[in-house]
């Protein structure tokens, strides 16, 4: 059960007035024929969008932004790489009015510091011509006194943070949330399925005004999590893109390879030597394996970086920036980078260790083939458990995953 003080404070919306979930009939990542100008966005926002080279919204943006800019609560499920982040970034920048305001108006909660850092960068590039809007990011790993000093110096209008640090700052009365008008959960299923993080989110939510816009986004939403999400919302517009296609990723070539544990390292090196790629992410199941594999790759003259949750904060952010800026082409990681974080140049994902579940598999392989581009995902299958997950992926997402052929045509996974 969700730990709310009362049902009145967080109204349940399971009634006949609730709008039915629209079943999107899109079978791949489409770019809509309309332009961003059709959303009647501020000229400053349209100019920034143009600077980024975007002309037409994706399907999720086409369906969500008109609703979100009206202040409607939005619960959105759409596969990875469709531009969900831009939905709430653009919608908030369109609505927010900061003239003469010295208060936090928008709060975005995420589950990792990399996601927080990335979303702040999205706000920065789209508010390029709205310099009066102040943003700030807060997450664990940074001395809390540093955050407190920053808040005393200047109050941000938009805060992006992880739940633990955000709640700490709010309880210490240095981050005041009583003026929040926009409340966003990105990767909301991840935020609400873990008891500790869910409790932090709930406690933060209670510190914000009763009347506000709530938006939640994820690639996967189990029925029980969807119900929990809706308890935070008032008559939400539910948007589900590509439900009919079971969230498979158009343009992503997916293969598996059966091999023994002792064969993995040699096969991985052979693949990296044979494949053409812009950037590749290699997923493993533990920190020790990540560090060990990273060491092996560097010894084999494949310069790689390694990142995981327990890595020191400065090192994590340094590695994130290094990979984001294309200064490194190979990243070894745990599931830390399996959700939400967007690296545009990644076109190959290798599951060195098979994902533990079908949803984790979807999030991992979704790092490649972003926004409808081509990509390649290869999974090493070693145990019976690995085989079971592979079969569950095939059934749940209605996708054909054949055995890895001797040769792969680079044109099938490299975008020209």
Automatic annotation (TrEMBL):
Keywords: ATP-binding, Helicase, Hydrolase, Nucleotide-binding, Nucleus. Residues 34-62 form the DEAD-box RNA helicase Q domain. PROSITE patterns: HELICASE_ATP_BIND_1 (PS51192), HELICASE_CTER (PS51194), Q_MOTIF (PS51195). It is found in: Nucleus. It comes from the Eukaryota. SMART domains: DEXDc, HELICc. InterPro entries: DEAD/DEAH_box_helicase_dom (IPR011545), Helicase_ATP-bd (IPR014001), Helicase_C-like (IPR001650), P-loop_NTPase (IPR027417), RNA_helicase_DEAD_Q_motif (IPR014014). Residues 65-239 form the Helicase ATP-binding domain. This is RNA helicase. It comes from Arcella intermedia.
């Amino acid at each position: 059960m969700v730990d709310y003080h009362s049902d009145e404070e967080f109204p349940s919306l399971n009634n006949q007035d609730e709008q039915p979930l629209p079943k999107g009939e899109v079978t791949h990542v489409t770019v809509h024929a309309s332009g961003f100008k059709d959303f009647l966005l501020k000229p400053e926002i349209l100019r920034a969008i143009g600077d980024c080279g975007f002309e037409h919204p994706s399907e999720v943006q086409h369906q969500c932004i008109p609703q979100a800019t009206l202040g409607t609560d939005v619960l959105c499920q759409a596969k990875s790489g469709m531009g969900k982040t831009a939905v709430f970034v653009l919608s908030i920048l369109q609505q927010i009015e900061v003239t003469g305001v010295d208060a936090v108006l928008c709060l975005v909660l995420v589950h990792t510091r990399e996601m927080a850092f990335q979303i702040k960068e999205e706000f920065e590039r789209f508010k390029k011509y709205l310099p009066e809007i102040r943003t700030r990011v807060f997450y664990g790993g940074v001395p809390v006194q540093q955050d407190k000093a920053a808040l005393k110096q200047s109050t941000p209008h938009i805060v992006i943070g992880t739940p633990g640090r955000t709640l700490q700052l709010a309880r210490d009365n240095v981050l005041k949330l009583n003026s929040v008008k926009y409340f966003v959960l990105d990767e909301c299923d991840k935020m609400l399925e873990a008891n500790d993080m869910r409790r932090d989110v709930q406690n933060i939510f209670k510190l914000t005004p009763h009347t506000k816009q709530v938006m939640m986004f994820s690639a996967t939403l189990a029925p029980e999590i969807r119900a929990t999400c809706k308890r935070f919302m008032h008559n939400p517009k539910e948007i589900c893109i590509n439900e009919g296609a079971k969230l498979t990723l158009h343009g992503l070539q997916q293969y598996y390879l059966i091999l023994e544990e002792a064969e993995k390292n040699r096969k991985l090196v052979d693949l990296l030597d044979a494949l053409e790629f812009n950037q590749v992410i290699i997923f493993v199941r533990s920190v020790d394996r990540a560090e060990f594999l990273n060491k092996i790759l560097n010894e084999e003259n494949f310069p790689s970086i390694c990142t995981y949750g327990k890595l020191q904060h400065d090192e994590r952010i340094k590695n994130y920036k290094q990979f984001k800026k294309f200064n490194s082409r190979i990243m070894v990681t745990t599931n830390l980078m399996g959700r939400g974080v967007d690296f545009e140049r990644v076109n190959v994902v290798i599951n060195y260790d098979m994902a533990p579940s079908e949803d984790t598999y979807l999030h991992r392989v979704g790092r490649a083939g972003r926004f409808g581009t081509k990509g390649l995902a290869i999974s090493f299958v070693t145990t019976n458990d690995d085989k079971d997950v592979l079969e569950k992926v095939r059934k749940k997402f209605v996708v054909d995953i054949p055995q890895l052929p001797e040769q792969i045509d680079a044109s099938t996974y490299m975008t020209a």
